[in-house]
Amino acid sequence: MSLLDRVKELDAKYRFMNAYAREESQGKGLLSGYAVSVKDNVCVKGVESKAGSKILEGYIPPFDATVVAKSRAEGGIIIGKTTQDEFGFGTFNVNTPYKVPLNPHDPERSTGGSSGGAACLTAVADFQHVAISESTGGSISCPASWCGVVGITPTYGRVSRWGLIDYANSLDKIGVMAKTVKEAALFLGVISGPDKYDSTVLKAHMPDYTRMGSVDGMRIGIPREYLGEGVDPKVEEQVWGSIKKLESKGASISEMSLPHTKYSLSSYYIIAMAEASTNLAKFSGLRYGLQMPIEGDFNQYFSKVRTEGLSDEAKRRIMLGSFTRMAGYRDAYYLKALKVRTKIIENFKRVFKKIDVLAAPTMPVVAPRFDEIAKLEPIQHYMMDILTVAPNLAGIPMVTVPCGEADGMPVGLHLMADHLNEIKALDAALGVEQN
Ligand code: GLN
User: Fold this and answer.
1) Which of 18, 256, 390, 399 is the least crowded, having the fewest Cβ atoms under 10 Å away?
2) Does residue 88's CB lie within 6 angstroms of at least one atom of ligand 1?
3) pLDDT at 24 over 90
4) Residue 184 lies in a domain
5) Which of 40, 114, 312 to mutate to test ligand 1, by most ligand atoms within 8 A of the CB atom?
6) Distance between CA 306 and CA 431 in Å, rounded?
7) What residue's CA is closest to ligand 1, atom 5?
8) Does any domain span residue 265?
9) How many domains is the chain partitioned into structurally?
10) Residues 10-46: b if buried by 16+ CB within 10 A, e if exposed
């Protein structure tokens, strides 16, 4: 059976794909033998790329995003576009007019979001596969942990975003998912580094991510605010179990405090929505995607297209985001949120003077059931991100690695390191994987 036929067979069962690429022949390089899936918000030449939104339906990029071009150059086979929450707006991958992927460990439960399709496919692939995914506030870590795979969110600026359909530019990071730490590290090396099309990429030294060390002598900090209230005790038990094993391998463990954690959700959602509300302004039915018969004046036309093409969640974010940056409210909301963000960065910088890696649960609970999600208010959706938004605001690298099970569902351990220290988080993740 061909690779693409196998992907289609699995997709019929788990619903992770928005569009398929054309069959291509195998090239040579670091990814030779690997299928590469691409989150729907990353452009692939000749394949519909719509970031999970109806407003981009029919948009076929005439170019490859840099991460896609780099994957092809190393022999990776691009297989298609994985489903996601519209523009990345969500935590359960249910905010989409397209397929809602099913958790491979229990089809009644969410894969997590917004890169749910990527995590689902990574978990079920019975062939060599790596996934291009993207995180703004936790969209790699959350689904990777709920589906029981490895996810790397690199330092902000490590990976080119040329060809990414953006959500919030000061937060967006392209990263990877894979079944093992080694494969994820290898793939991160392939897509990282300078790009003449993206001047925001850091010109910092790039280590060989696959040369991981041991955890012997590693200083691991446990952030007090990430445990206890709100975290399922069964999840916490698994997390502590794996931390104790790292200790038995020579790591030292100490408790730390990140006191501004309690402000991270409000700061994140104000900044993310403010940026999203301006980014979405370009989708007006003229240049990209959805078009309708032109009637009335331009405002009437734009309203019609946007009413039809954007979901309620996208509209909510446009309204809230526009509000927080309006004259008169800007100081009280948007600028305040930026100040809080600086405090959060300082919190991390302070602890990373004393430790190498922070370890915490990736998500406070295991993947919830769809019937539970249906009962949640939007604000309760946002609250689910409590453990992932702070490191995303700070732009530090993070790796989630499976560390056990609770109620038969996978639990992820979140390993966070200082800017550009992906390798330290990877060392710790490898230690957990070998447990
Ligand atoms: N759940 C968060 C949000 O809705 C993060 C999503 C993401 O990282 N794209 O904004």
Assistant:
1) 256
2) yes
3) no
4) yes
5) 114
6) 48
7) 137
8) no
9) 1
10) bbeebbbbbbbbeeeeeeeebbeebbbbbbbbbbbbe
Own/partner long-range contacts of 352-355 (Cβ < 8 Å, ≥24 apart): 352/417, 352/418, 352/421, 354/219, 354/221, 354/254, 354/256, 355/219, 355/220, 355/221, 355/254, 355/256
pTM given for the model: 0.97
Distance of CA 332 to the CA centre of its chain: 29
180: nearest Cα among 106, 141, 130: 130
- CATH code, domain carrying 49: 3.90.1300.10
pLDDT in tens, 306-340: 999 999 999 999 999 999 999 899 999 999 999 99
Q: Please check whether residue 266 lies inside any domain of the structure.
A: no
Burial of 427 (0-12, 13-18, 19+ CB in 10 A): buried
Q: Which atom of ligand 1 is nearest to the CA of 392?
A: 8
Q: What is the pLDDT of residues 214-236, one digit of tens each?
A: 999 999 999 999 998 899 999 99
d(CA 48, CA 191): 21
Quote the ligand 1 centre to 32 CA distance (angstroms): 32
Domain of 150?
A: 3-258+345-434
Q: Over 90: is that where the pLDDT of 23 sits?
A: no
Q: Cis ω on the peptide bond leading into residue 37 (within 30° of 0)?
A: no
